[in-house]
């Protein structure tokens, strides 16, 4: 995948989160994609921090959008690795009433331009 194609996926991914558009978000993912996050493990230890498939992702993100009505992601940095069809999005996670957090999301993309794997890494919280 080209750097421009990967960049377009990253922008669409951020837009879908900020628009709280679960359908647009899921269109970016392969039907059997995996998503890994420590927050998943905290919410339900039976997941061991991993969900697979669009149906599980729909439930997870719908719940997140309902719980965090003011959720916003602000892009800080985007690293593209077109040789690996992957990118890392570093962003500031904003939720009213919560400390800001710096996050990183690693997205791996298949030949069809769909995300097959996403992994979330939570950085420092900033009290502002």
Give your account of this protein's structure.
The chain has a six-stranded mixed β-sheet. The chain is globular. It has 128 residues and is an alpha+beta fold. The chain has one domain: Nuclear Transport Factor 2, Chain: A (Roll), CATH 3.10.450.50. It has four helices and six strands, in the order ααβαβαββββ.
What's the helix and strand layout?
Blueprint: H1 3-18, H2 22-27, E1 29-36, H3 38-43, E2 50-52, H4 54-67, E3 72-81, E4 86-94, E5 100-109, E6 115-126
Task: Spell out the key features of this protein.
single chain; alpha+beta; 128 residues; 4 helices; Nuclear Transport Factor 2, Chain: A; globular; 41% strand
Summarize the structure.
With 128 residues, the chain is α+β, with helices and mostly antiparallel strands. The chain contains 4 helices and 6 strands. The longest helix is centred in the N-terminal third of the chain and has 16 residues.
Percent in strands:
35-45%
Q: What structural class is derived from the secondary structure elements?
A: alpha+beta
List unreliable stretches of 5+ residues. Answer: none
Within the largest sheet, what's the order of strands?
Answer: 2-1-6-5-4-3
CATH class: Alpha Beta
Shape, principal axes of CA atoms: globular
> How many H/I helical runs?
4
What gap, in angstroms, lies between the N and C termini? 38 Å
- Count the E strands: 6
CATH architecture: Roll
Proportion of helical residues:
25-40%
- Arithmetic mean pLDDT: 91
Radius of gyration: 14 Å
- Structurally, the number of domains stands at 1
């Amino acid at each position: 995948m080209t750097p421009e194609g990967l960049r377009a996926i990253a922008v669409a991914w951020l837009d879908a989160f900020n628009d709280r558009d679960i359908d647009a978000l899921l269109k970016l993912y392969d039907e059997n994609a995996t998503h890994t996050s420590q927050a998943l493990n905290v919410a339900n230890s039976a997941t061991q921090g991993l969900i697979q498939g669009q149906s599980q992702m729909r439930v997870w993100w719908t719940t997140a959008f309902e719980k965090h009505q003011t959720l916003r992601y602000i892009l800080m940095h985007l690293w593209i690795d077109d040789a690996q069809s992957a990118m890392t999005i570093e962003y500031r996670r904003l939720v009213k009433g919560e400390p800001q957090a710096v996050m990183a999301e690693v997205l791996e993309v298949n030949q069809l331009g769909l995300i097959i794997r996403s992994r979330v890494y939570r950085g420092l919280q900033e009290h502002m």
